[in-house]
Amino acid sequence: MQYQHLLLLYLSGLMLTLTEGQKTTQIYESAKNKINSTKWSKATTWNGKYRDMWKCNLFVYDILQEVGATTPKKWGMQILANEWADPNSASVKGTGCYKTVSYSSKQKGDIVAFKRNGSSGHVGIMSTNGNFISALRYKVDSLDVDGFRSGDSFIVSTTVWRYTC
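Structure (tokenized):
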């Protein structure tokens, strides 16, 4: 009887891990399919709004919505990149569906966010080979995450969130 309970606990944990992995794979695949799209570029509008504004947070929001993942909100709106970059964000933690992981543990489908001092942060979705996918000035593209971090002197911290629901 005791071994049956242990087996059930083990299998429950295995199922949870498989579910987490399936959703993060969906997040990654959805983001990958948007590479080269201009829908979220700074130069275009998003749903008729936000022309000439950075829309990396809206890109992440739309990807999460597309795959049926819970999306953090603040005051009923999509959260901004600097909110994603806060490892203590009540908006993200309050969903019950995200946990922070170390930068060295990042994997495809994770949300990676960069906090900047004095300006908007940046957020994207981890890809493969050390890259992340995000909305940039002219299109959605895949960038080397370490190169992005080291090339922006205003970045003060990086937070990685993993979807767990």
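Confidence is low (pLDDT under 50) at residues 1-18. The beta strands are 73-74, 77-78, 98-101, 111-116, 122-126, 131-135, 140-144, 155-163.
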